[in-house]
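Q: Fold this one first, please.
A: Sequence and structure below.
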Amino acid sequence: MNEFASLVASQLRTDLRSLPGQARRRFSAAGQAARAGTIGELRAAARRRVPRVVFDYVDGAAGDEVTAAANVAALRALELHPRVLAGVSEVDLSTSVLGQPVSLPLLGAPMGLTGLLHPAGEVALGRALAAAGTISVLAAMASCPIEEVAAAVSGPVWFQMYIWRDRGLVAEMLQRAWAAGMPVLVVTVDVPCAGNRDRDRRNGFSVPPRVTARALAGGLAHPGWSYRFTRHPRISWGNLPGDGGQDAATLSAQTNRQFDPAATWDDLRWFRDRWDGQLVVKGVMRKEDALRAVRLGADGIAVSNHGGRQLDGAPAAIRALPAVADAVGGDAEVYVDGGIRRGADIVKALALGARACLAGRPLAYGLGAAGEEGARRAVEILRAELRTALTLAGCPSVRAVDSSWVTCCASAAPGRT
């Protein structure tokens, strides 16, 4: 056997021995997530892994989804201005939020019902973010109870709450969050009523889910998801009282009736008076609203249009950020939520005045693609892209980013991923 034939034979033997492991890595959910190089690729993996009704619940938005698309497009419309020969051999991604050190300026946005994507739900998201050295925000309408998440996550967890009519229920949840060691309350103020989610309506989405022929067909087409779902169903809200015998329409309607369109600034004062920790007000898009929230005791302002899931036609969150940041100044920290899909998006948000960004859908795509491993991959992707963007821009630290690093260009192609 000549030298070339010997080389080929050796390679074939090695390939055959490694074939089972390669097959597992190639076709398993974890393997596909590990190969994903962008959040868009994780989104595609999640779309393959979960039924359409579940994917659309996470991916969809209100009305024609104009605002959801604008969140992404407006970030793409910003140009980064690099400095050359800047001697950036190392990049420091670390910062702090409300006095808590974090390894990168990215927090997990509050999301409801992530247990529909994967039974580990908010536990998996919290663990993935804690492993990355940053913070998750647990939603009031999460699939996993407050106490379960707090016990399972080693790092800090913030708690998010709405302004609901039943103040007894709200007070009880605040007490539970405080007792569980959650130091920061995030009050979401942009949901006086539920938005019109056309995808959910067309899909017949409800909580708990209604078993229909279409739902059964979706489950059969996604056997891995169905296996996990039937073994560990997360079919309702983990922190809200409910009778398991209630039908889906009744339970969903009762929950929607908790939202209060008559809520005023006095209601925010009610939260401030009853919460001993730090307070972030989320859902602010106007500078005058931000200033009023700060005067009432807010320690942080999250500029957000709810990911486009409430008022369709609202401006992109990144467009509202500079005015809010300028108005608030150093009186409160400012964050932005909406449209983060790339590490470069984080740089742009910091340049326009954000202390950190909140991301929801990118983490949800990872969770749907491969559970906790997928969520960790989502954070890894954004961290690596952030590091690369800063290096290429000639900026040594996230704390050094200011308005000189970014300008707005005339247009950008719209997109969702």
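Q: Good. Now the second chain.
A: Here it is, same layout.
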Amino acid sequence: MIQIFTLALRDLGRNRRRSFFSALAVGAGLMVLLLLAATIKGEYGSALASGIRLQTGHLQVRAKSYDENKSSLKYEDLIANPDQLAAQVAAIPGVKVATPRLFASGFVAVGNQSAGVRIFGVDPASAASEPYRTSVVSGQYFTADDLEGLLVGQTLADKLNLKAGDQVNLSVNTSNGDVAQQAFTVRGIYSTQTPGFDGGTILLPLAKAQTIAAAEKHASIIFVLLNDSALTDQVAAALQSPAYQVLTYTQLNPLVLQTEQLANGYMVFLYLIVLGIAATVIVNTLIMAVFERTREIGILAAIGMRSRSILGLFLAESSLLAVGGIILGLVLGGLLLAYFVSHGFYIGDVGLSTGILLGSTIYPQPTLTDTINLTIAAFVVTLLAGVYPALLASRMEPVTALRGGGE
């Protein structure tokens, strides 16, 4: 075996440039696959994390009849005495924070410009509101007793040319079917770096949202964050009640999970295409080597080398090219990932049209599992690419081969 690999290494060294670029093709393919896998993981992992952090939580407790698609504000669709229920939920082991939230729909107008918006009534002091509090980029955060202030997302503010301190008119659908209208001051502009959220969400203190929507002492949901997402099912089971419905983040973010599964399915075909291109280079390299060394193969066969040994020789060359390519791919892929993990890919406001809370910048998330799986796949495909040239060489008749392949 050692002798076979020694011969294989010597044969590859005869044309070092060709061998290097063949290994580089495998390495470039592996590098691209590592970046693609990490980007997909980062894209949908970030979208799910943003969804949990900004609007769904790990869990939501709702009235049985509540329909989020309608932003229903009928009293029978809301939670009465939400502070009391939130306190009960917060006492369950594993719960980090539980807070009431009220959702409504409406539109905001300034001058001759207007836009449809979602109104989030939130408790300004709650730990669950930390992402909003820390994302204020101009102006200031509001307080629980603020009756005339609101927060506007950066994307929406840019669209309406708003800045902190400006006056806007906010119209809100109410629980009795009317539309309430009031002038508000833009206390601050926030940016969560998630255009899909920042472009259509107005934040109000919970008490003010309840007042303007005529939903006093009621909330749409109890927003729940956990210490560990692995506890989701356990806490959800503890919260089950005939009076309420309890939804987990997987039920609340179905589009993200379904799109990720679909993307992973398509990525398998893309992986095969990229590896197939690299395999074609290996096949071409080894076939050229077979025809260049026809007489040598004839001599080896004539002095007693068996067909299986000749087969093993070319498979050894293929495996050495695979190992060299994989090393190059891991080095190049590691350097590329190190850069993009730090700087990310800027994609802008794609999330506005997809309905998924994608950030404006995607940061790849490489994993050891993906690295190992793709490395194994690259090695196997490269090794398989050497099977045909190896069979071609092993089946040559010694006399014909000594004549250079001619009759």
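Q: Anything worth noting on the second one?
A: The longest helix spans residues 16-56.
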